[in-house]
Model the fold of this input.
Amino acid sequence: MWKAMVALLVIAVAVGTKMPASSSAAISDQDGSNQSILITPTESTANSFHQSSLGGSVALPRQADGHFYASADVNGTAVDFVIDTGATVVSLTRADAERAGINVDPDRFQVVAQGASGPVMGLPVTLPSLELGGHRLTDVQALVLADGEQSLLGQNVLSRFQSVSIENDEMLLR
Done:
């Protein structure tokens, strides 16, 4: 199963490793309610973009580089992601994974994909907790990339929203 998911991640990894870091979103409420959420970018990305949440939806403006960014808590630690609709699963940089308390043993890295420049090394993991704008997911499949420079938020999280749309340079997660 990992091989199929990783196969779709190849392009996303190649693109994502070249992205600058930046910052946020929503999923399904823990109690099933529909709440408004205000998501504040992290200090490192506060000047790079603004995002808001109205009526339980999260609005992410397109940034100057053409991408959408979100900040999420992974095991209680803020991690900045680029939204990657082409990525099958969440992928974390090694630094982000370690900051989030994920034990990363470099001896366990394996080939998880083939990129344009050769094999992509990574480690399949399960994230105990991923929270976006007050909406919490548990047991989220992810990859820790040996050489990634930007964490990617993939379809295994985006698919938890009722809808994801892009209109007028804004991504709306409902």
Summary: The longest strand covers residues 118-132.
